[in-house]
Amino acid sequence: MEIVSFARNKYNDQAAELFLQENKKLKERLEHADIHHVGSSAIPGTLTKGDVDIQVRVKQEEFDEAVRVLESLYPVDEKGEQTASFRSFYTKETVLPLGVQLTVCHSKHDVFHKFRDVLLINEGYRDQYDELKASYEGKDLESYREAQRHFFDQLKKTPEYRSMK
């Protein structure tokens, strides 16, 4: 059983630097991709597990090539869902653990940048998310992930999320 732990502001500089490095590398190989720093490390002052998440958004016709490029850079996340419009990659071989989510624009999984934006514009949702994280400090990671999924399912119902393109 993996235990989850959170910190506030401890990883900010490392997370920002890692995103800049990976963004540069990704832009060189996937010049048409829309690349975003997502997840808690992209939201200043929030609790984070100390990892970095990147969303790489591509058109459907660019997806297979993007998969090949990302597979050459990162291990596939064997625990993540893999579909014709979504792939997940994960490595601990960087200064902080790194997750890369490849999504087809406007597909079912094209949500990560929207979640980030909603949390950035609404302090109340950020506070709720931090409270959720704090309640899982030192507990089972899978239990936290289930509660996190429920939180984001609820966030999808908000006017802020529904107004996102």
SSE layout and pairings?
Blueprint: E1 7-8, H1 12-29, E2 34-38, E3 47-48, E4 52-58, H2 63-73, E5 86-91, E6 98-104, H3 112-121, H4 123-135, H5 141-155, H6 159-162
Parallel strand pairs: 4-6
Antiparallel strand pairs: 1-3, 2-4, 5-6
Helix pairs in contact: 3-4, 4-5
How would you describe this protein?
- InterPro entries: GrpB/CoaE (IPR007344), NT_sf (IPR043519).
- Pfam families: GrpB.
- This is GrpB family protein.
- With 165 residues, the protein is an alpha+beta fold.
- The protein has one domain: Beta Polymerase, domain 2 (2-Layer Sandwich), CATH 3.30.460.
- Helix content is 43%, strand content 18%.
- The chain is built from six helices and six strands, in the order βαβββαββαααα.
- It has helices spanning 12-29, 63-73, 112-121, 123-135, 141-155, 159-162; strands at 7-8, 34-38, 47-48, 52-58, 86-91, 98-104.
- Helix 3 (112-121) packs across helix 4 and helix 4 runs antiparallel to helix 5 (141-155).
- It is globular and about 40 Å long.
> From the coordinates shown, what is the CATH architecture?
2-Layer Sandwich
Describe the main β-sheet briefly: 4 strands, mixed
Which radius of gyration do the C-alpha atoms yield?
A: 15 Å
Number of helices, where a helix is a run of at least 4 consecutive DSSP H or I residues? 6
- Strand residue percentage: 15-25%
How far is the N terminus from the C terminus? 38 Å
CATH superfamily placement: Beta Polymerase, domain 2
CATH topology name: Beta Polymerase, domain 2
Low-confidence stretches: none
- Tell me, rounded to a whole number, the average pLDDT: 96
Compressed to H and E, one letter per element, the order equals EHEEEHEEHHHH
